[in-house]
Design brief:
Elements (H helix, E strand, L loop, with lengths): L3 E4 H11 L4 E5 L5 H8 L5 E4 L3 H15 L3 E5 L4 H4 L2 H9 L4 E7 L15 H5 L5 E4 L6 H13 L6 E6 H5 L1 E4 L18 H13 L3 E5 L1 H4 L4 H11 L3 E3 L14 E4 L6 H9 L2 E5 L5 H4 L11 E6 L13 E4 L2 H13 L8 H20 L9 H11 L5 E4 L3 H9 L8 E2 L10 H11 L5 E6 H7 L2 H8 L4 E6 L4 H10 L14 H8 L2 E5 L2 H13 L4 E6 L18
Parallel strand pairs: 2-3, 2-4, 4-5, 5-7, 6-7, 9-10, 9-12, 10-11, 12-13, 13-14, 15-16, 15-17, 17-18, 18-20, 19-20
Antiparallel strand pairs: 1-8
Helix pairs in contact: 1-2, 1-7, 3-5, 3-18, 9-14, 11-14, 16-17, 16-23
Length: 562
């Protein structure tokens, strides 16, 4: 086909179609009208109009994590429309989520003239993305759109920002027809060396207390079969890094749940006492360890398997480092371990773990506080009984969600999406909308506190207008729980700014055209959630939680006050 003359906006949308984009989240603005006009006739792209660019970016982030494809957010306005993207892109960067963010930009002739809505978007996005580009001319737009997808999806994934000036979008140029995209994800991934596999297998065969810590490299690739096969070959527990509790199916007998200062005591003890630790697709970063030997056995020999070479041995000295895909490496290691003559040294360790894990789960149910007002442990027990096994669960930051992360059960990979190391409040509801669009056959349940949901209620309109049926559970304790706990425990109860005033969220949902449900007592929780899941509409369940049930997660931050 011969080149055709098109506007920059039409060329951008044609390239998005060629990249396989099925959904665009965006907020309309005058700076990108040529793109919006082209989207109007773009068969195969569903446009989801949002109410805030930040929450739209969370939707693109959720879509990306749930689908394995790039999520696309379009900020129609330069200046404030672009600056609103920053928080969402910082969140996506912390989660290694492949988001392609496109924003209108100032007309080229107005730069450095203190023009209306002028801000240096090239500099603004540099700290919160993998790469920032600004199109210098109309004919370069397809090239830069393709590059944005290549960079976002290439290991390690992450967000990319593309700024498109008004005059560049409005300009005309001759463009070649767009072609199908390349496979971005497998670029530059090395295979593990035979020597490294042999050395790691020898270390594992000799271990008496081995443990596997599985992270995002297993979860994001749905590599649970390879990880559990390796655990079975070694005969050792496999625990998960915080926020990746869905990396291993909940019912597997060697699954210990999430480890570390935000994990459960059984999984955490395994890592504290192990003599060999296989860090499988995880950085052993902040949420897992607080960078402290309080959470990792100082004497353990670490086998670190990571896709990102700069992460290997970054926080803890290692015995063996393997720069490779975690799934492929786990498969090769399992074969090598099974070929060894003696693999029975860790049997007592594994048997003790299984017994302790079973006892812990039984005790968790038995000790759940089912009194009134509703306590977190009682609420989590109720949620375990009612959340469908195929559900996707999204969460905010905050102590209630941090406790819930390991208190719930995830039966398949890509079932849990959290803010991870960015610790963002106001993420869960919007992320859930994106995840539901990516996997419409699965129920989506979003957990939030009342403060976080209050930040994002305008997106109820987005859910209703687009028929995105998720169930949002607002754990309403009428306060900023983490900060109020710190004020109670370390500042003598001198509360300031800790309490939150909110409308009845069930009634607010109904005003938006969604369905609202209320649970004033623990007995109300399961029926309300069941009704919300069955209502075939966006739904909000307002759950009253005891405002005095506070927990200080980051006690280490206040050691100077104890």
């Amino acid at each position: 086909m011969s080149p055709t003359s098109r506007s920059g906006g039409q060329a951008a949308v044609d390239t998005l179609l060629a990249e396989g984009v099925s959904h665009i989240f965006g907020l309309i603005g005058s700076a990108t009208m040529e793109m919006f006009d082209a989207i109007h006739d773009a068969e195969g792209i569903r446009y989801i109009g949002v109410h805030d660019e930040r929450t739209g970016t969370h939707m693109a982030d959720g879509f990306a994590r749930a689908s394995g494809q790039a999520g696309v957010i379009l900020a129609g306005q330069n200046g404030p429309g672009a600056t609103n993207l920053v928080t969402g892109l910082a969140q996506a960067k912390a989660a290694y989520s492949p988001v392609v963010s496109i924003a209108g930009a100032l007309a080229s002739g107005h730069i450095h003239r203190d023009a209306f809505q002028e801000v240096d978007q090239q500099a603004l996005f540099a700290p919160v993305t993998k790469k920032v580009s600004t199109a210098p001319s109309t004919d370069r737009i397809p090239e830069l759109v393709r590059e944005a997808f290549r960079v976002a999806l290439a290991p390690r994934c992450g967000p990319v920002q593309l700024n498109l000036p008004r005059d560049v979008l409005a300009g005309q140029a001759d463009f070649e027809p767009s072609t199908a995209p390349a496979n971005h994800r497998n670029e530059g991934v090395p295979a593990p060396s035979a020597d490294a596999i042999a050395d790691a297998a020898a270390l594992l065969v000799a271990a008496k207390r081995p443990v596997i810590v599985a992270g995002g490299g297993i979860k994001n690739t749905a590599g649970h079969a390879a990880a559990t096969d390796l655990a079975e070959a070694i005969g050792c527990p496999i625990v998960t890094s915080p926020g990746h509790g869905d990396a291993i199916p909940a019912g597997h007998p060697l699954n210990g749940g999430q480890m570390g200062p935000r994990g459960n005591p059984v999984a955490s003890r395994m890592v504290k006492e192990a003599d060999v630790i296989v860090a499988l697709g995880t950085r052993l970063g902040f949420n897992s360890t607080f960078y402290s030997y309080d959470n990792v056995n100082r004497d353990a020999k670490i086998i670190h398997i990571e896709l990102e070479p700069t992460a290997i041995g970054r926080f803890f000295p290692i015995e063996i480092g393997i720069w490779a895909d975690a799934v492929q490496t786990a498969e090769l290691l399992a074969v090598a371990v099974r070929k060894a003559d003696d693999r029975a040294l860790a049997e007592d360790w594994a048997a003790a773990f299984r017994a302790e894990r079973v006892a812990y789960l039984a005790d968790r149910d038995a000790q759940a506080d089912e009194s009134h007002p509703t306590q977190p442990s009682g609420l989590f027990k109720a949620l375990r009984s009612v959340i469908p096994t195929d559900a996707i669960v999204t969460m905010d930051a905050g102590t209630l969600c941090l406790q819930a992360t390991d208190a719930l059960e995830y039966h398949s990979p890509k079932s849990l999406f959290t803010p991870l190391d960015f610790g963002l409040v106001g993420f869960s509801f919007a992320c859930g909308l994106g995840a539901r669009l990516a996997q419409p056959e699965r129920p989506v349940i979003s957990l939030m506190g009342d403060g976080g949901f209050g930040m994002t209620t305008s997106e109820l309109s987005t859910a209703v207008d687009n028929g995105i049926n998720t169930t949002t559970i607002v754990m309403n304790n009428r306060c900023w729980g983490a900060e109020k706990a710190y004020q109670r425990d370390f500042f003598g109860g001198r509360y300031i700014g800790a309490d939150v005033s909110s409308p009845p969220f069930d009634k607010l949902a109904e005003l938006y055209g969604a369905k609202g449900f209320r649970a004033d007592t623990l007995a109300d929780v399961a029926p309300a959630i069941e009704a919300a899941l069955a209502c075939d509409a966006p739904a909000v369940v307002d759950v009253a939680v005891d405002p005095d049930a506070l927990y200080s997660f980051r006690r280490d931050s206040f050691k100077h006050r104890t």
